[in-house]
Amino acid sequence: MLKLVKTTSRKAGLSPGSPVFIGEKVTEKFGLDMVDYNADNFSVSTPVRLDEFHLLKDTPSNTWIRVHGLHDAATVDKFCLSFGLHPLTIEDILHTGQRPKIDHYEDYLFLVINLIKYDDATREMSMEQISFVLGSSYLLTFHEKDSDIFNDILARLQNNKGRTRKMGVDYLLYALLDRVVDNFFSVLEKIGEEVEELEEELIADPSPETLQTIHSLKREMILLRKSVWPLREVINGLQRDETAFMGESVRVYLKDLYDHTIQVLDTVETFRDIISGMIDIYLSSVSNRMNEVMKVLTIFAVIFIPLTFIAGLYGMNFNTSQSPFNMPELNWYFGYPFALLLMAGTTITMLIYFKKKKWF
Amino acid sequence: MLKLVKTTSRKAGLSPGSPVFIGEKVTEKFGLDMVDYNADNFSVSTPVRLDEFHLLKDTPSNTWIRVHGLHDAATVDKFCLSFGLHPLTIEDILHTGQRPKIDHYEDYLFLVINLIKYDDATREMSMEQISFVLGSSYLLTFHEKDSDIFNDILARLQNNKGRTRKMGVDYLLYALLDRVVDNFFSVLEKIGEEVEELEEELIADPSPETLQTIHSLKREMILLRKSVWPLREVINGLQRDETAFMGESVRVYLKDLYDHTIQVLDTVETFRDIISGMIDIYLSSVSNRMNEVMKVLTIFAVIFIPLTFIAGLYGMNFNTSQSPFNMPELNWYFGYPFALLLMAGTTITMLIYFKKKKWF
Amino acid sequence: MLKLVKTTSRKAGLSPGSPVFIGEKVTEKFGLDMVDYNADNFSVSTPVRLDEFHLLKDTPSNTWIRVHGLHDAATVDKFCLSFGLHPLTIEDILHTGQRPKIDHYEDYLFLVINLIKYDDATREMSMEQISFVLGSSYLLTFHEKDSDIFNDILARLQNNKGRTRKMGVDYLLYALLDRVVDNFFSVLEKIGEEVEELEEELIADPSPETLQTIHSLKREMILLRKSVWPLREVINGLQRDETAFMGESVRVYLKDLYDHTIQVLDTVETFRDIISGMIDIYLSSVSNRMNEVMKVLTIFAVIFIPLTFIAGLYGMNFNTSQSPFNMPELNWYFGYPFALLLMAGTTITMLIYFKKKKWF
Amino acid sequence: MLKLVKTTSRKAGLSPGSPVFIGEKVTEKFGLDMVDYNADNFSVSTPVRLDEFHLLKDTPSNTWIRVHGLHDAATVDKFCLSFGLHPLTIEDILHTGQRPKIDHYEDYLFLVINLIKYDDATREMSMEQISFVLGSSYLLTFHEKDSDIFNDILARLQNNKGRTRKMGVDYLLYALLDRVVDNFFSVLEKIGEEVEELEEELIADPSPETLQTIHSLKREMILLRKSVWPLREVINGLQRDETAFMGESVRVYLKDLYDHTIQVLDTVETFRDIISGMIDIYLSSVSNRMNEVMKVLTIFAVIFIPLTFIAGLYGMNFNTSQSPFNMPELNWYFGYPFALLLMAGTTITMLIYFKKKKWF
Amino acid sequence: MLKLVKTTSRKAGLSPGSPVFIGEKVTEKFGLDMVDYNADNFSVSTPVRLDEFHLLKDTPSNTWIRVHGLHDAATVDKFCLSFGLHPLTIEDILHTGQRPKIDHYEDYLFLVINLIKYDDATREMSMEQISFVLGSSYLLTFHEKDSDIFNDILARLQNNKGRTRKMGVDYLLYALLDRVVDNFFSVLEKIGEEVEELEEELIADPSPETLQTIHSLKREMILLRKSVWPLREVINGLQRDETAFMGESVRVYLKDLYDHTIQVLDTVETFRDIISGMIDIYLSSVSNRMNEVMKVLTIFAVIFIPLTFIAGLYGMNFNTSQSPFNMPELNWYFGYPFALLLMAGTTITMLIYFKKKKWF
Q1: How far apart are alpha carbons C301 and C306 in whole angstroms?
Q2: Nearest CA of chain A to the CA of B259: how many Å?
Q3: In sequence order, what DSSP letters do the residues of E73-126 get, joined into one string?
Q4: Chain B: partners with 3+ C-beta pairs within 8 Å
Q5: For the residues B181-207, what does the mean pLDDT come to?
Q6: Structural domains of chain E in order of their starting residue, each with its CATH number
Q7: Closest by Cβ to C259, choosing from D101, D226, D282
Q8: Confidence of residue D296 (pLDDT cuts 50, 70, 90)
Q9: pLDDT score recorded for residue E24
Q10: How many residue contacts between C and D have a Cβ separation below 8 Å?
Q11: pLDDT tens readout for residues A59-78
């Protein structure tokens, strides 16, 4: 299950802007790919010396650097400083579990977003922070783990498919964000299937586990919403950005991306509403089922009650020899069959009555 | 039942603006009607060569092209490109299940809306995306299926009834949107009837199916609202549009259309509120009914309990010959009648008590 | 009960602005009164020729025309056209069940509001649309039925009481709207009494009918709110109106009217909140009462269970002659009294225990 | 209990601005105190002739007139007219039960607020309307009853404590409003204590009365909120007032007053949230308690059921002399002790089983 | 548990701006530390004479004065007056339990915030007001108690770590606020753990205490939110401040702080949503468990009912010698075994039936 809060106590008391990694301990090593491209050329390399990166900042070609393995805080700090990033930016990159946001600095735009992953096997979501730094001709991306979500965009870049190669790093940023938002749709589609399965299960065979599933779905929706709401603000912020980092030609794409984000948000809200309604259905189903059982059992018991009474009646020891009024039935020739018939009659009358009242 | 999410995973990972059809597979073929009209002339034709359409773009007469059968993505793409539509527009036309929206391009306005259909037989709603492209003298409409909703407007055009022929394509767009909003009213009217039926059923004879119906109505309201809220924004956007596509003379009609959309929205919200309240009524009705049954059964059982005890009492085997204190009743002349009267008296006392307490 | 939606399907598919009457079929005939007044003169007449009305439009005296009997759509249409009303205005006048709204036309202001009536006998609300057309020196009012709500204002005009005669038709419009808002207060006052009665009934003697009443009150509040919210916008629209139809001197009155509308709205919301809370009280009351009954019945049954067991015990047929251990009690001199005392003792012990546990 | 709506029907149909008193009939007579003060002088008097008040309007010293006993509408009307108040102002002063509001007139500011009183004995709130008219050098206050809430401010004025004497009537208005807001805190403090008591009662010993109390607290919160929300707007309106009635030097105090009002509002909302949560706790407590009783009773009954069966078994009349298989136990030497032991064993087994299942 | 309202009645009726301490009575004495620092120098001292402080106001070095022990109102008042603080500021410092706020005065900025403490042992939150006064070169902090939350910042100042020494008192204020917001994260982290524990307990073993815990968590969230919402406004106010107190260079840090506050708020809202959902889970769990017990008991009882009936049947005293129809079973050779088999058969049939119906 998604953790509600990341452990932040490690940081409390430190100076603001301290480069400390907050996040799950992953054993993965720090690593990075450098992609250099323009309309005509494309190269991928894995540089070793961190201190030469800043030279790239002002080259005319577009540079995309993918960093992964953030737990090596010192190396990440060194790398970021070589790009002239503000200490608060570095803190936000390392301190994963941030709320999605956009920060405008003089030299670059800084974006934090959350990527949601859905594990088909366990049906659980997990969340990963991706940070973006957009300069005039470079884009840095920081992943907690070695995520492969952007691999197809890398492939498109390499094969020179689509518009990506022809346009600047601002379009590349858009393409990456579009990939992230498309990923939300994939996750929602799976959750949508889960919700529809659950709706059928609710009617057919509700069990205490069903309520558990509803609750954890609701919880996931709450956390998903917590990621998408600020994402909407981030993309809106990009769209309205008045700095030169996002070119005019990318605006129309950002409008489209914004619309998609709104649609994700709408769907999350719709799911929340539907899931909330399911709890009523569940409680009512369970209570109906229980009531049915109790009703049948009670009716069963009620039918035997007069029979047992009749049996008890003729089990009384009144002295029949004392008086002709004392239980003459006991000495009748058809006394026993009479009693049995009386019992059968009572039972049938009751069954007819209950049937008529539609009690079963 | 309305699907919660359209399958979008087919698209995730593709370049933004890729022309892929997302939607229900319908076997219908790509087709189109071309309506050419002005105050004096009117003609309908079905052109074959797609590459000549762009010639129409700048003719002085008004042109309305109705496209249906979107699953043939390649043909639609080719057709749209001939009109100079932006790749994102084409993507949105093909990728049905969009949130209603309005996009302003330099050469045209692009609108996406959802048409709601209500099947009287199954009492289920279905949703279809209709896209509109409004140029200076042409209007394109794209339907997922071969919808006949605009046929009466076509007939009015042909018969030169109303204002439509005398005015431009902007008025035609208004007339089509007005038709869509009127259609919402028709659907809401039917749902209103269903809600009122349900309210009566709730009181008269609530069954587990009633709750199912309430739940699916609630679900439909959630999805309906999801279509109408953004529609409101779309029509507001049209109204405030500062480009030249919507003429001044059409503004007053758009204000009216906007008011109608608000009214649709109001009604949807009202239904949601009323339907929410019905769940409480249902649960209370069911619980009342169950309680009544259980109470009657319990009272029935309770009445027999003392009788069975009395019968048991006189079924004890105390030796009456041993002592005059040992169950002398057994040897009384009217012992048995006495016992029966005792039982009858007990029963009557209990019935009077329960009646007085208003327990049945 | 208030209908949720007016039948609008009769209209779907017609050209926008078609003059079709949508509303309850009332047999009342079309009729109108014409009131002509200024500070010095006052006359009421019932003109016959509809085509001469437009002559009145520009006379210096103030003219108030009250139209009722809207189902005669053709006559209303003709009348309205003679005043130069826009087709959309005429459509809105005839198509009753509109959401309250204000439309600004070049020649006039158009207002639609809903009048709520409360039937004391059936305790049900009904709704009637009243449309207003305010020109520079004339005011038209359109009633679905022959409503007498404005009769006292007519009387004030005639008797030259208050400010109405001295001021223009804009003040008259204010006076009429003030009357409508005062009417909301009267309705709310009656509903307030009903709510307070219900609160007492809830505690004293809740029945399934109580829940029905709560539900229908809630429903009425939802529909009332649907009328008052847009009314607020309408009056706000009048207040901020920059055209010349509402004079400066009437603004201070409109501010007051606006405050009253807010107060109506506040009261409706308060009632909604209180009524919502009543459902919990009801469910809890009913469940408490039921639980009490079941508890008493169960305790009653439980008390007899050991008695019946004791009776059964001494009804066993062990052979007392076989052994001194076999039910010697049966041959005791005080065997039967002993058994009865045993039973009495058991009962008393149980009653004390239950009393101590505060179970009854 | 607080009435939901004031009786307003007496007024419906009257001309707007009619001076009719709407409110509880109190026998108190019309009366007024006139306080005249500046930094150096202070005098209190009770003038008799109402028509001389207007002379005071333009004196350089500050004048505070406290009016109480509003049911004498004619006298109040006469008094107000002598100050040149607008008919709508007079109507609002007399028609108590107004929503708090601020009206800007050319010659004065008009404020209506609600004072909440809390009766410690009955634990009930009552509401009183206080109206303020602030001119350039005079302040009028209108009380429904002879309220003593402003007595301590009068005393401060008299003893020349604090800043009040040195400043104008605008500061006096602030001081009075501050007193009213402080009074809200006192009421909330008492309600807070009631809420905390209730929270303890809920856990210790919930009774149907507890639910009554929760409901009436909730109702009070709804009505309190209805008074405080508009009060916030009123004070905000004062703060942003651009007329000359509120001096610059009082602004900083109004900001403080506004903050306090927000705090009152916050507390009301907090109470509402907490009280809402208490209903769940109550329902759950009651249901738990009931369930416990039913469970114990059921277990008790269940324990006796097999015992009664065993007793019944050995009460059967099979002919033991016919066959050695027919109930040989009846003739055993230790038959009866065997049966008793069988019963004891059954009981103990069941008790152990129930204990293990943690059923009691 | 956190008190809902601070005792404010002590103050009602006093002149606005009266220096009265409202808060918990703590025996701690008034005390203060004075920290004087710039990039090169650092000194801490504890001055005795309060009347010399104002001399510090205009020194070029930065001065931070920490005041604790507010219950000595007179001394605090004297101290504050020596700094030229406004009476309303002094009132707000002393009257703890304020809503967080920011006030702009000509000479200084005044901030009030609430610090939340979480006691690990009792799992309870407590709240403390901290007030800040920021002048051009001095910062005053006022603590209710002798809080050590800012000690690490003092240590950083002393050791000249981080940026604090190099920057002005505006950065120091930021650093202190950042410490307070980080503290919210620590508290939320602990509450998050508590929530997750509770979620497990809910499924594994819900008890009435669980509901108590949910309720008190919900209550804490309500109160926490009441502190954080206005804190957000305060920090936003600081950020948008146009006075010279907050320098340009600190703005980027305030943006970051604002983002963190939003994240705190988001987390509080998330917790509220999750905790609300837990009540449904709890009620359903408890009801499920109870239902299971009742079902098992009922089934047990139902199984014995026909057995007891059969035993009662053969306990009837029909005279077998009178007729061959009168209970011939009693004289059969295998009569008793037949009866026992009949009982066993009945039991097995019922068990199979119940098993098939999945009733246990």
Answers
A1: 10
A2: 23
A3: HHHHHHHHHHTT--HHHHHHHHB-SPPPEEEE-SS-EEEEEEEEEEETTTTEEE
A4: A, C
A5: 88
A6: 31-285 (3.30.460.20), 290-356 (1.20.58.340)
A7: D101
A8: confident
A9: 66
A10: 165
A11: 778 889 998 888 788 888 88
